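Translate sequence into structure tokens.
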Amino acid sequence: MSRTEEFQELRPLLFSIAYRILGSVSEAEDAVQETWLRYVDSPTEPRSVKAFLSATVTRLSIDVLRSARVRREAYVGPWFPEPLLADPYEDPARSAELADSVSMAALLLLERLSPLERAVFVLREVFDFGFPEIASAVGRSEAACRQLAVRARRHMTEGRPRFEADRTEREELASRFFDALREGDVTGLQDLLAADASMVGDGGGKSPQLARAVLGADKVARLLASVIAQLALVDATFETHEVNCQPGAIFRDRDGKVLQTLALDVLDGRVQAIRLVGNPDKLGHVGPVADAWAVHRELQQARRDARPTP
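Result follows.
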């Protein structure tokens, strides 16, 4: 097998490692590309191609994450991971675990960890790497990696909810939720939202977005119904689509360009959190990105036109 073939076979794994460490599709793709260049330039064939490539993409991702942390401190408003529409790495025996590890909720928990803890957790808990491989990847002793894994696992366990939705139950609830959303059914939405449900948006200061988190089933349901009614004025639509392996949707303008993504966090039979990503810098991989400010101005004009004449 050629180096190109070996790399392409492992590429889904490399991207999935990098994305979980970085929370960014574009940065993960860059890390994978740089890994390929280093592999091509390597004068000798590594004993284990998988170990070499995994270690390389992990070290690159750690370095990128350290610099990204500084940028995120100055980020305007809430920061969410770049939405992922499909995880290229598949393992049927562990599909539920892999899906959970890439959810918005899990990635936001990973943000609490140091870059080294995050890398060790991803390699050990998500992809089941052995500690000798992890130690080589992060440049620490096996003993140190075991300690990092324990700390990371503790932080992640403390932050996880006590009840998690069954996949079938989650999908059925999400179907009812999006049906109610299409109809602007406030009562139907309220019935599916947890009492303390929240809706939060990430616009990065580059698109119209919620000024602050909206809290409570009643407020969230009424705002959602209002938003859907207003988007209809400018022929904007949404389509359901998994986002980070969870129920979600993609909102588009009349030309089919992407306005934002929406991801649901379903727990204990209710929608607990709704996360919107509208920062255009995070949507390019989803498709052509709409000018959200132009849509916003058009909407304001449509509202004025709809007002009754005195």
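Note: The longest strand covers residues 193-202.
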